[in-house]
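User: Structure with zinc ion, tokens only please.
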Amino acid sequence: MKRIKIFDTTLRDGEQSPGCSMNLSEKLEMARQLDALGVDVIEAGFAIVSPEDFKSVEAISQTVHNCSVASLARCTKGDIDAAWGAVKGAKKPRIHVFIATSDIHMEYKLKMSREEVLESITKNVAYAKSLCDDIEFSAEDGSRSDWEFLAKCYSNAVAAGATVLNVPDTVGYSTPDEMYSLIRYLKENVEGVENVDISVHCHDDLGLAVANSLACIRAGATQVECTVNGIGERAGNASLEEIVMALHTRAAYYDAETGINTKQIYKSSKLLSSITGVPIAPSKSIVGANAFAHESGIHQHGVLANALTYEIMRPSDVGIPQNTMVLGKHSGKHALRDQLEAMGYNFTDEQMEEIFARFKILADKKKNIMISDLEALALNRRHKDLGGWQLTKHVVNVGTGIPNTAYVQLVHEGEDAEEVAIGTGPLDASFKAINRLTRMKNVNLDSFSLNAVTDGEDAIGEAVVKLNYDGEQYTGTGISTDVIEASIRAYVNGINKIKAHQKG
Ligand code: KIV
Ligand code: ZN
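Assistant:
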């Protein structure tokens, strides 16, 4: 069987998509999870873009143990130096150099001739190679480039030392047949192609990113670039979980396998959604809430008689736990830790203190604690790690014909502080009180959403706020069985992210 390498660009192309930006500790947490998932390469960022991007690529390089870590770089010395500076501490560093090769990009964006682009590839790939052994070269807008010219670009890249040739469908324009033929053509026409990996990078503008990636694998590509939950520029990138499970479920057809631990897929997807506050659509393949739900009576009957009648994968294949009752009000810290560890969550003693305190409050409100409750607690515990303000008490007074008031008490570095504010509703009043307490002015609430993340009357609600401050967007999340408390926690979390960003 062919071994297909999974190149994950959630932290670079994915993070570029609106509403998906992450701070350093969130990127590190996601990178650790991607490493546990078993991806071959993490594209950790675009080091030249800002000192923050550089720092996060550098920190990820020093954190992950198993996979390669790549930084993106344009075909310039400055970009390549920054990329190398950021990844050189990785066990397996890679520099990912790119330049556009389609006529439209060369004429209007780069203002370069074909000859100049060819020279730039030779010069910059060779420079990158003088720093790092593993060099990936991408021809941006490759799928809309002239094939003969494209083959020359890749031949130059191989001659200059590239180890991976990536073929992007940058604007998601191609069809599976076209991508198949393009890869076949490159395999026959690029000099030295037999010594390197051929990679594909498909965007989902026409909803074809996964189909295109799979067609390329059939044609001989040995690496695919993708993101968790398919996040990415515009309509997104090819979804990691869909490609991996297509290869896993139809291994005989594709005669290919990946190194992914499929049981980590659900956790990776949930973690990303919890960090970014971008919910997973219920009908999303593989990880959506309905992906394994059989609603029709005929289907249910079939599945009960033999699961294979309607199920091509089992929820457990992708690590979806059975939502059973696991703990109750009287459960102790050890039982909680054991259960979380069985679910794949390992916490320090300090983190456990915080989770246990939240668990006790939850268990007082809910009789039975289900797997999904613990998952929500585990995914939301990173709030404390961020430091800053924490909610200790709140009281809201709302009604018809009376002013809506909120009393909020927060603790900061051991000191309690309290405020009362009046607003147009309970949340407006609470958010005003928080702004005063934290001395934040000019924070705008771009969006607010609330979702039930567990089932039943006493479900846990997750609030997500998108705050705009100084032209940047910050996502805050909070959970509770009380929707106002969840909203206040989300707002405080968003403010703490702004403060952490200000401190640098
Ligand atoms: O979509 C694209 O072309 C890219 C390249 C930089 C690989 O993201
Ligand atoms: Zn892309």
